Prior knowledge:
- The complex is a heterodimer of chains A (about 300) and B (about 325).
- Chain A has about 300 residues and is mainly alpha-helical.
- Helices cover about 75% and strands about 0% of the residues of chain A.
- In chain A, α3 packs parallel to α12 (about 265-295).
- The mean pLDDT of chain A is about 85.
- By secondary structure, chain B is an all-alpha fold.
- Chain B has helices at about 1-10, 10-30, 35-40, 45-55, 75-85, 100-135, 140-150, 155-170, 185-210, 215-225, 225-240, 240-250, 255, 260-265, 270-280, 285-310.
- Chains A and B meet through α4, α5, α10, α11 and α12 of A and α2, α7, α8, α9 and α15 of B.
Amino acid sequence: MIAWQQLRRNRLAMACLAILIVYTGVWLYAEGTFWFARLRDVTPAYRVSNYAIRNQPPSTAHWLGTNYAGRDNFVQVVQGTRIAFEIAVLTSVIVIPLGFFLGALAGYFGRTIDTAIVYLFSVVGSVPDILLITAISYVVRGVVERSPSMQTVTRYIDSGLLAVCVGLGFTGWVGLCRIIRAEYLKHRERQYVLAARSLGASNMAIMFRHIAPNVSHLIIINFSLRFPGLILTEAVLSYLGVGIANEPSWGAIINDAKQRLWLGNWWELAGATAAMFFLVLALNLFGDALRDALDPKLRTAEARAA
Amino acid sequence: MAAYIFRRLISVVPISLGVLFVTFLLFRVIGGNPAYRIAGKNATPAKIAQITRDRGYDQPYFLNFKDFPRQLFHAQFPRLVRSILRGDFGESITNKMRVSELLRAGILPSLCVTTPLFIVDLCLAVGLALLAAYFRGTWIDRSLVVGAVMALSISEIVYIMIAQYWLASEWRLFPVWGFEGPQYLVLPVLIGVVAGVGGGVRFYRTVMLDEIYQDYVRTARAKGVSPPRVLFHHVLRNALIPILTNVIVALPFLYTGALLLESFFGIPGLGRLLVTSISNGDEDIIFAETFIGAVLFVLANTVTDIAYTWADPRIRLK
Lengths: 306, 318
């Protein structure tokens, strides 16, 4: 609660939080319209083409103009918000359990387990991120598109989206794992752990019932600092051709806009870029403030200088 | 010292082997038979079978127990290790050239873009960070930080598209595309700096501020050393270690770094090679670049550790 009070006083952080709440609202709205259409087996509104009004500049009817298929660009950008949040959520489904569990094991038990896990994340962390993400997405996409058993999954989740999330997930856990491991190394020497052990608590109970609540704030910090990176990487992956192709993610919109920028159609690029910019900016600034508030030990010099 | 360096260099081997193993698992085991991806979507079964046979994808993964002791290592992974030790990364499927040849041809154009980019970026980032640290807490500092975060909140692709369209194509300030002289490098370097400098400024500023509140700084000020001298002679020198880490770890970035810049501006470097290989499904090239990138990263990390002992005598060798 002290953390929240400190955050409240930071006016910049509060402004960012307001922006993030607006984005979350937009996400939930977009998610609602998407599933509403999907479950009734109708084409969602953002997919309906209208070639009579293609490539129109912004007007009162279409705030951000229309694209090559006569789809309203504002609606596309709203759906892009959905994809951005879906990537964050789906990636976290891989990153948080994997990073937390392995980090906890390595830090708590030490010795051979630690050596093995450190070796594992050194290996994964050695491959430059963008290369590994590209390689994983490239391979996973091939697997997903060929295997018949994945058909049921890809009916609901775009195969490109799935590939991107697997790629981002299996590279992103390294950062969380490092932090959690370092934290467990410190906590296992603490008095309360000794007290719990002398009362007969098992290793698992100490790890997850006693230490985990003391380090769980790191997950939130890691998430808010990782999220902006995911959005920017997704855009690169779309360009490289291993990203999302059949859904209007911001990366896909920008990649589509590339060809028509030469015709002077700036609005497609502007819409997605602006949406991306404000979300990434708010996340970056809010993430920093959150880290300062939740973890006084990690507190950066930013807070001291201010 | 020599023994220490030798020991550190030896430790590169297990990590590199691990990277090779992970990439092998990814491309050959998890991804299934690569022949499907290489042959493309509309390939005939006969073509797939031929690629499978030609490239040895039908052999066992790790050890071959057929005809037991003799052909034990006649399997995919041992053969891969052997060919990489010989510097052979296979051949491109699109133009049948050796991958090692293609990589060698790509190094120079890549370095032409990334070296100036790296140097300008580093100098500018450290300079701005010093400026922010010197004026800490004032509007100069605050606007630098907010500016840096804003600059890194825009995708590099957008910078490239905007600059290429307006600066190069509409206003004709720079050549739009190609690699025929130094003037072709100005715009890519400029974009790379704008897109990359924000993160650097933010990081280096934090590093400097971490130092600025140390006791030795207060001592120096109390002795009557002037603030600029404290900054350049005391703070900067102590901040050198985190800066060094950041710089050396970013060095392998020189090799594939300008992925987007190269492919947008038609510079025939390694980045563009990778981008075209992804769209052509040229698996051997993707594999080679991933692996070499990782080995360079590991080497850079090792060099950082060695450089520490040179930059900071307090760090003792273990």
